[in-house]
Each structure stands twice: as structure tokens, then as C-alpha cells.
Backbone:
């Protein structure tokens, strides 16, 4: 099956620093990757859609200058949280779409727990 | 607007059957997904329905009625490990997933 990895799984940082999260599709080519954020006891919230080789499409209310997304290859997308603040603490999950399947299923990475002190 | 509704929380007994309902109103329809999410973990795929009817996969089954904008996930022979949140998501006309808030399922011995 399709596997998506995320690194790091957990990160604690000081307020004002930047944090980079990597999302990799290990055994398939992902033309599209998605970045989600999930606060405790809430559902997934789509932050942005990342297409390989082009700029990411951000959802309304998501600051593109704060959440930098780079999808440089068909197997790697990165999310950089710039100048992180405590309110950015959340569970960040990426998913990747395998264009080989017939119904555009998204495969999820294991998530990254970000804590900003 | 687009909307996915599912119950916030359900409780069931080990060994029993539980049905989790999902109703939706979206801009277009390209399939409905059910995902399972354990606390602190990412969602894992359970099922996909794009045509009306019942899809059975082991202890889990998923049903879809497009005319009614309705789906349910049926879990049989409940096990303690089935305690998790179950997320209903619809793929709209832009192939974006619209997520429900999830149903927290609590299994009691």
C-alpha cells in the first residue's frame, strides 16, 4: 500500500523560531499533497493544497507568509512554520494523493505534534 | 455552503453492532470516505463509496445514498481497539475533501 512519512513526529520549540516539517511519499508519486492542522477534539482543517512544481493554494484564513509550503518533487513537500507562536501549537498532518488510484484517495502521514513554548 | 454532519459521540458495548451516520451537503460529489483516527494519530482509510449501496469489508461496512445525501458506517463484533474517532469526508466537485467533525466512539466492556 501507499506509505507517507512525516518528520519530525514531535517538535518543541521556542516562540519566534521557525520549524520545518517534511512529508514524503515513500512508494508512489504524489502529484498533490495536502497539509492539515488539527486542534484537540476538533476535525481536520485543510490549510493548503500543494502541487508539485507550482505554488501552494492556501485556504481562507491561512497566512501563506507564515506557513511556507514547498513541493519540490513528486515525493516531497515541506511545511515551514515561520516565527512560531504558542497559538501555532497543534497536530500537523500531511496527506498525499496517488494519481494511480481511480478515486483520488488521500494517504495520510503519521502527523507532527508541534508545541511552541 | 458545504456541510457534513455526524454525531459527536457514541457509546457501544464490546461485541455489539454500532451504526455511525453521516449526512452531507456539498458542491458536487466525487465519493464519500470513512476514516478511523485514534487519539494522537493520523487518520487511516476505512472505506470509499461513490455508488449507492452497501460496501462490506470484514467487520466494517459502509452504505451510501446519494439522493438522500446520507451514509453510514456499520461496525460489527465491536472490539475495544475500535474505540476511536470516525471521520466522514466527501470529495466535492474540485476533488477537495470536505471533512465532518468526527464521531468519537467509546466501547465499553
Residues:
Amino acid at each position: 500500500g501507499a506509505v507517507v512519512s512525516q518528520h519530525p513526529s514531535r517538535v518543541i520549540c521556542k516562540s519566534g523560531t521557525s520549524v520545518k516539517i517534511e512529508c514524503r511519499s515513500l512508494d508512489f508519486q504524489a502529484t498533490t499533497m495536502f497539509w492539515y492542522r488539527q486542534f484537540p477534539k476538533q476535525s481536520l482543517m485543510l490549510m493548503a493544497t500543494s502541487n508539485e512544481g507550482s505554488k501552494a493554494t492556501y485556504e481562507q484564513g491561512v497566512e501563506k507568509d507564515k506557513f511556507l509550503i514547498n513541493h519540490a518533487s513528486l515525493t516531497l513537500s515541506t511545511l515551514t512554520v515561520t516565527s512560531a507562536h504558542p497559538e501555532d501549537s497543534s497536530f500537523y498532518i500531511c496527506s498525499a494523493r496517488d494519481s494511480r488510484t481511480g478515486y483520488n484517495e488521500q494517504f495520510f502521514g503519521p502527523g507532527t505534534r508541534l508545541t511552541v513554548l | 455552503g458545504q456541510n457534513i454532519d455526524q454525531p459527536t459521540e457514541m457509546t457501544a458495548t464490546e461485541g455489539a453492532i454500532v451504526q455511525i451516520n453521516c449526512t452531507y451537503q456539498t458542491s458536487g460529489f466525487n465519493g464519500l470516505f470513512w476514516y478511523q483516527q485514534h487519539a494522537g494519530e493520523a487518520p487511516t482509510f476505512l472505506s470509499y463509496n461513490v455508488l449507492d449501496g452497501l460496501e462490506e469489508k470484514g467487520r466494517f461496512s459502509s452504505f451510501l445514498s446519494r439522493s438522500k445525501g446520507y451514509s453510514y458506517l456499520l461496525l460489527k463484533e465491536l472490539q475495544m481497539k475500535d474505540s476511536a474517532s470516525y471521520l466522514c469526508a466527501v470529495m466535492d466537485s474540485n476533488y477537495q475533501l470536505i471533512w465532518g467533525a468526527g464521531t468519537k466512539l467509546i466501547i465499553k466492556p
About this structure: DSSP finds no helices and eleven strands in chain B. The mean pLDDT of chain B is 94.
